[in-house]
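ugh ok fine here u go
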Amino acid sequence: TERNSGISQSDMYQMYAYGKKYGADRIVLLYPYSDRISRTDIGYASNDNVKVDVRFVDLRNPDESLSELLSEVTEALKWIG
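structure:
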């Protein structure tokens, strides 16, 4: 829906449930990029400290898209230690 920037509410809920089940406080949901979906940062933070972020993979240009994602993951891992 437009309100959810094209992201399925059930996908977001499922990622939240995985976070709760496995004790993860941050989950990243990968979604294929589409011209119909807003590419702005999309995220949800629950009251019980589980954060779900959405990142997009451009399947028309997967090498560049995955390279950007890998850089982001590498930076995030630096903060973890």
